[in-house]
Model the fold of this input.
Amino acid sequence: MSEKMIYIHPAPVRVWHWIHAAGIVALVITGFQIRYAEMLGIMPLRDAITLHNYVGFMVIIDYFIWLGYYLGTGKIKIYFPDLRTFVPNAIRQAKYYGFGIFKGDPNPHVMTPDNKFNALQQKAYVGLMFMLLPAQMISGVFLWRVKGYADYVHLLGGIKIIDTIHVILFFFFASFLIAHCYLATLGHTPLAHFKAMFTGYEEHH
Amino acid sequence: MKKLKEAARSSGLLFLFVFLAWPALVTAMDNGECFDCHSDETLTRENNEHGHINNLLFVDEGRFNRSVHHISGLFCVDCHTDIEALDYDNEVPHARQLAPVQCGNCHSESEAAFAESAHMQIRSKGISMTCYACHDYHYVSYLAGASVAEREDNFCAKCHNPHRSHDWLPKKEEHFAFVECTVCHAPEVPRHIHLKFFDLMTNKYYQGDEILEILGISYEQFMPLLDTDKNGILSRQEFEALELMLRQKNVHAIFHVELVAEMDPAAHQVTAEGAERNCEKCHTPESPYFNAVTIALPNKDGSVDHHRVERAVLESYSLRHFYIYAGTRVKLLDLIGIVLLGGAACGVLGHLTIRVLTIRLRRNKDK
Ligand code: HEM
Done:
């Protein structure tokens, strides 16, 4: 078997990714502390709120770094599936994860710098980066200045409605985090994808 | 229970009042006599060597008649007790120099509580604060119906700018808008949650009688109409029925929710050191401060009818414009969270298990 290294994650993407990852983990932890203040004792509520707000803004800035990089380089298209092949590809990919992977079949999707994501990843990441994360950022900013944005908050139905959006997405992100970390172990070795996100190089077989 | 306590207190006051007012009634010195001179807007003191707060001797009859003391049947001489008779032979029919009014004659509990407050300690600095520095004297109004903003503007904010301190408290603006100063600063005062009908369009509170007119009922019919199980407390369902009734009448009132002090003498025991600074006191579902949740229906004269509401209403979407982190969270969302997180965890564990179990399969294939 011939092994060759391909450069799949350019430096800006790797930097963005790890800031983002650390940010989301911190947001999830502080988020739990804020919502379940009486049950958890990770840190005092006040610190949890302060930290959550700072990290929230870090993640927002980081998001714009990501957006700027992908828009600037035109690579954003890797996030958007080719509609003609999307459905069959997605089915093929789902079959692989649910079945073929156990038998040792090869991954039907081959990673290249221009075609980094498989069909399922594309679907998940487009939704995540263009809908759910922005929704989370906007609802978070409204919660941060309830009085300052009172007009918008009222328009959207009140603080409890905004908070409901924020909390449902929070649970979604927390679940996503679990799935995401697990899926990352499905490379040709359990740590392969993790290494790639540090070095930028993915091994090809 | 609370109604009883209030009633007992006012009947105590009434008793005191009748007792004190008796001599006045005998000499039949009604307010009209005083207003003969004191409704003159130009009447002033000849000299003010005693440092009174103003030189004007005008008393606004209309405003006085709307005050809680007039409504409760007090006469001028119940406070200005040293006027026993008017002697019109003199230029001034009573002593030129009258004794200071003692609010504590009737409000001894408030006076006692006030004596223990930070505002009494400043006497050592040579500042003495009177009751009317906060309450006014001729135009005291009912307080229970006032919103947090009104309570702050009329009292504490006249002298303090809380935004300059409280740096340890995040979201000062939100806290000062929803939490009355005395809730934190008077440790002994009982607190409760007030729900008032608020119109977002006009930015105004509905008066009790406006709401009742819309519902087509009188004050006495409010609870009988809504409290269908007759337990004296509006349950979540009964509360939602009220919302629906209003919506059917095309009224889109929201409930404005505030954390306020009850009318209790302990509100005067203001302190800085003993003030509440523990976030978890309020930001927890078990907070003792939300035990009592009441709808406040202000009467025309400013007094208020309180109607008990089940605490669980705080966690409902009927109160969409109020949310205390951790304190009033919606339980349904927790369920959704468990399902999502549990789903992800089970999926991962299941996949991992099969992956481990099928290792052999893949090894054989490699060979
Ligand atoms: C992306 C930018 C984000 C911002 C700006 C943000 C901001 C906020 C803010 C301001 C609050 C209210 C606390 C306060 O007022 O200080 C809040 C609450 C919360 N946030 Fe975020 N957040 C963000 C992302 C996230 C993410 C990604 C999660 C979870 C994955 C999360 C979970 C939570 C939770 C659970 C609460 C408590 C709400 C409750 O108890 O009902 N947030 N967030």
